[in-house]
Amino acid sequence: MAELATVAMHVDSREKSSPHRSRKMNFACKKLFTSASRALLVRKNLKDLPLKTFSTEILQPKAQKETITINFMKNGSKIPAKAKVGDHLLDVVIDNDIDLDGFGACEGTLSCSTCHLIFTDEQFKIIGTKPTDEELDMLDLAYDLVDTSRLGCQVFVTKEMNGWEIEVPAGVSDARDV
Amino acid sequence: MIRLKRMAVGAIRSFSSKITPIPRIAIIGSGPAGFYTAQHLLKSNSKLHVDIYEKLFAPYGLVRYGVAPDHPEVKNVISTFSKTAINDRCRWIGNVEIGRDISIRDMRKAYSALVFSYGCQIDKLLNIPGENLKGVYSAREFVEWYNGLPSASTLNPNLDCEDVVILGQGNVAIDVARMFLSPLDELRKTDISEYALDKISKSRVKRVHLVGRRGPLQAACTIAELRELTKLPNCFGIITHQEVEFLREKIKELPRPKKRMMELMLKIADSSIDNKIDFQKQWSLSFFKSPLEFLPSEENPDQLGKIRFSLNKLKDNIAYPTGETVELSTNLAFRSIGYRGVGIPGLPFDSERGLIPNKNGSVINERGLYCSGWIKRGPTGVIATTMNDGFETAKTILEDINSSRIDITSDQLGFDGLANSLKDIKVKPLNYQDWSKIDMIETQVGTAKGKSREKFVDIQEVFKLLDH
């Protein structure tokens, strides 16, 4: 039960007020209760979550976070950004005030595909978490979708990403061809 | 010499300020298309001013009146729109309908360019017998009703039955289905209008049938919406095996989005085999059926009793009747086969396609007229599609400003030149501060009821609040 409470607490720290989220959470909890492989699921969920845990300020103040450099590539130009380990890439774009029109329209709630980023095969393998069905569902609506596409709001910064060049697809120009 | 130089500089300054008046752009419709167009225009040209017109007392169009109340995350786009609205070079003007309160001719005189982004207000008809029977509703109107659109607030649909048929399989159809299938306690917390929640909570609906004229590959819904249906508690989804079995051979060749969607459909079909009668509610996706006729019930000739469908086969993505028919008994049906745009007097319009004829947002053969969003490309796509679409129109306008294809003159005064004419016809425009006040009260009233917002429906109440 204590484990479950932890899971519930971590399921989303951003969207406490959202009823939709809480429904997803309830569902997740119900699933945990009824599943025969409950222990396994709990462990799996916890494994996915610690990165997000670090992004909550209560557990680790901002100043203590390790900072690396990530480069966003847009239309051939390179935009370097300071990235705190544990933040997700959408946060990095926002915190660095990077001017990407329309990026992250739903504010990281997995309801749009506007924070679409393209990784190299190698980078894609290194990213700690694998995309969930829900993330892939949103990506399927993105322009320029490739096998190594991810949503910025679902990818968390790790130390290995120092110096990475991550491609931001050129949404607007492609809309003309649709 | 120095003095002379100063004079010269002064002369050049005053001269240049005369030849570069401010480009004033009017945007008609304050939904996502209007706001995304405004956002890109303001960002890319530091002189330009934008006036955004809205016929209702509230901004945000379909984000407020279309997006399902149980999808609050989608409404997060509003925070970007409100940043645009409070930009010094942007003005939001509510409760003014262009084409009725101000003519297009007067608008053209007051602005360098007009952008039409008023969306698609009417829905497509099936044009089959019995479409006017009681119990046959437009999904669009139903959505507007539960979302508190003033003109739809009196719809008061009769939901007293166990089976609902929804004709169409797009995201609107699924939104409507969810209103009957979602746990009430979840809907209660949303900004659904109270009268609608009352009515829906009393409905006896147990089974929702979503019927499409073509096959699973042509279903218009997005995979996220379909998956959400499969995750509703106490609810069981059905897809008939025979209707999707052919996919198993085809699935490998499909591009990833279609492939994943078809995999989900097959998964639903596979789990449909176990008959789970212990679930309280159920929904089904049914394919290859076109409605031929709405038939009255035996008890009441004015009331829908059943729907007769033609069984179809597909050839080159087009549905053809096989000659066989099937009937489904129901007292409640929703038509959800798409929206249509309507024209404004004085504006070119393609009535066949229900949109404004344009090239990259520039209205064909009309200097200074542009369009954006659904009225530009038709009623499809998600928020990201409309965003790119709005940016595209803005780019076209910016190019036309740079190449002097639009007239920018100093006697274009924007809304300041038009406000007086509104007084004459007793139209009271609202500004963004008015809206902020309405917004605050709606949120407060909602919070007191344990929900995110309770929308105003009656504009007279809004005016009372604002002390006009």
TrEMBL record, chain A:
Top-level taxon of origin: Eukaryota
Coiled-coil ranges per UniProt: none
Stretches that traverse the bilayer: none
Cofactor(s) the record lists: [2Fe-2S] cluster
Gene3D superfamilies cross-referenced by the UniProt entry: 3.10.20.30
One GO cellular component, as annotated: mitochondrion
Domain 2Fe-2S ferredoxin-type: 68-172
UniProt GO MF annotations: 2 iron, 2 sulfur cluster binding; electron transfer activity; metal ion binding
One record GO biological process: P450-containing electron transport chain
Keywords, alphabetical: 2Fe-2S, Iron, Iron-sulfur, Metal-binding
Name assigned to this protein: DgyrCDS13945
Lineage: Eukaryota, Metazoa, Spiralia, Lophotrochozoa, Annelida
TrEMBL record, chain B:
Residues annotated to bind FAD: A33, E54, L62, I98, W374, G381, V382, I383
Top EC class for this record: oxidoreductase
Enzymatic reactions: 2 reduced [adrenodoxin] + NADP(+) + H(+) = 2 oxidized [adrenodoxin] + NADPH
Electron transport as UniProt keyword: yes
Keyword entries, A-Z: Electron transport, FAD, Flavoprotein, Mitochondrion, NADP, Oxidoreductase, Transit peptide, Transport
EC numbers for this chain: 1.18.1.6
GO biological process: cholesterol metabolic process
Biochemical pathway: Steroid metabolism; cholesterol metabolism
Pfam families: Pyr_redox_2 (PF07992)
GO cellular component terms given for this protein: mitochondrion
Gene Ontology molecular function: any one: oxidoreductase activity
Subcellular location: Mitochondrion
Domain FAD/NAD(P)-binding, chain residue ranges per copy: 24-181
Cited InterPro entries: FAD/NAD-bd_sf, FAD/NAD-binding_dom, Ferredox_Rdtase, Ferredox_Rdtase_adrenod
Annotated positions binding NADP(+): Q169, G170, N171, V172, R213, R214, E225, G381
Cofactor: FAD
Family recorded in the similarity comment: Belongs to the ferredoxin--NADP reductase type 1 family.
Protein name in UniProt: NADPH:adrenodoxin oxidoreductase, mitochondrial
